[in-house]
Amino acid sequence: xxxxxxxxxxxxxxxxxxxxxxxxxxxxxxxxxxxxxxxxxxxxxxxxxxxxxxxxxxxxxxxxxxxxxxxxxxxxxxxxxxxxxxxxxxxxxxxxxxxxxxxxxxxxxxxxxxxxxxxxxxxxxxxxxxxxxxxxxxxxxxxxxxxxxxxxxxxxxxxxxxxxxxxxxxxxxxxxxxxxxxxxxxxxxxxxxxxxxxxxxxxxxxxxxxxxxxxxxxxxxxxxxxxxxxxxxxxxxxxxxxxxxxxxxxxxxxxxxxxxxxxxxxxxxxxxxxxxxxxxxxxxxxxxxxxxxxxxxxxxxxxxxxxxxxxxxxxxxxxxxxxxxxxxxxxxxxxxxxxxxxxxxxxxxxxxxxxxxxxxxxxxxxxxxxxxxxxxxxxxxxxxxxxxxxxxxxxxxxxxxxxxxxxxxxxxxxxxxxxxxxxxxxxxxxxxxxxxxxxxxxxxxxxxxxxxxxxxxxxxxxxxxxxxxxxxxxxxxxxxxxxxxxxxxxxxxxxxxxxxxxxxxxxxxxxxxxxxxxxxxxxxxxxxxxxxxxxxxxxxxxxxxxxxxxxxxxxxxxxxxxxxxxxxxxxxxxxxxxxxxxxxxxxxxxxxxxxxxxxxxxxxxxxxxxx
Length: 611
Ligand code: F6R
Description:
- By secondary structure, the protein is α/β, with parallel strands linked by helices.
- Helix content is 36%, strand content 23%.
- It folds into three domains: 241 residues, Glutamine Phosphoribosylpyrophosphate, subunit 1, domain 1; 201 residues, Rossmann fold, CATH 3.40.50.10490; 146 residues, Glucose-6-phosphate isomerase like protein, domain 1 (Rossmann fold, 3-Layer(aba) Sandwich), CATH 3.40.50.
- The structure holds fructose -6-phosphate (F6R).
- Fructose -6-phosphate binds next to helix 10 and helix 17.
């Protein structure tokens, strides 16, 4: 996720761009840049770090010009640095591009452009776009952008200027948001409405595949096939705060809704066509996959939600790859005297990449000779620098303290690794490997389907938010999903909640169950339906109210539980990706019922950089 802006009109572009970028910093803040047409040429200024670093760099200098584009970055390809920051330009610096999204086929396009003699300066996918536009440029910038778009696979929102066309910018959108803002004698482009509100409230949300030529006095909008359309301009009456949250009441709600997009962005670029037919999993970040063949065990270390992703992955690695796997809390691991050898695959998971306990576990593992593979959301974080290899989740910045989209994107990375390991080791048949890939590709739509039914969960939360304890029960994958569900609920609703392995209830925890208890049974694994139904009966008979989250559609749990929420059909092993979403929503709506601010829960911080 990045923020992009564009300005064309009669005013100075630089202050307009910087002001608009300030409103988009929540979309990314590891580097920023602008390109302004000044004195007949493009002046490009870029800086690693927060927007302030860029502002300080250009303070006191006059970059005069009335056409420009700007960008605030959340790196996906290439470390945060001055050179990787956007705008990216063609070799002669006459075309500048800002981009939000992922060009999935950028590697192939890059190799082809290199074969045409183009020299690349960065590892960004965006530089490919600038060179491609240059390649197709025959005196008409709009046509060159249109031809380029037809070559791009993946998602983009982009804005382009050329020194040959001082009166216009070109904007295009596919899968990532882009809004046009209509002023008097000036027009704007932005990733999101907050960037526009200082100047105008008349906006047009570009539709899929559309491309626009934006001038100071008018805007021409076309479909991807080049047919002109009349934009339906809307008046925005939100305040800036609501606008930053995209119209959602809280960042947490927005981030839960971003999960379909975040999961797709994390999975799709890693799926390629296999040479012999079918599909394959490919991480460009990983140097080969032979290490899986020699692996004797996998150790996953992480904290909190990231550790829960590791617990799910433990089952996935054992099921798909038949490798003994442990999931350790990093805060404990750092004080162990761990047994590690060169055949152990050591994986650490961290959204921020800055968690002190996780970094300590990494340093310990490295000192014992382990090679560390990191899964993190933040390019350039301490973890990404210290690990031997790193894999990025593409969730975009997570602002709410309670982690949601980071969790599900960590999970899909771990599933991809487990499937690949299973295939490489011969533990997974080619058919099951293909089925696994298909399951992951189908998750975004299924997640969206659950989110569309959030009202059901909201009603349930309104009935249950006052329970004085909530227990999540389940076995294996469901138990792992329960751990994360219970953490979400306790973090933001301050309700005492715990997860229990369902079979363990009778060994002690059932003593806690009474009529002030809500038990949420995660019942997604078909072979275990009977077992979990008995557990539900045991707690019901002790007065608990029960809710089953299941993928059974036969009505089996209607008899057993007081309420049933059915998730879309999914292979049992992938169910945590879906079953956690109603639990996230439940936690959110319980917090709202109690009057808590879910974005800023008491006593918690987003990044835990102390022990
Ligand atoms: C829970 C949550 C925390 C983090 C934990 C690790 O919602 O966000 O439990 O998961 O503090 O943080 P990272 O993933 O940044 O290492």
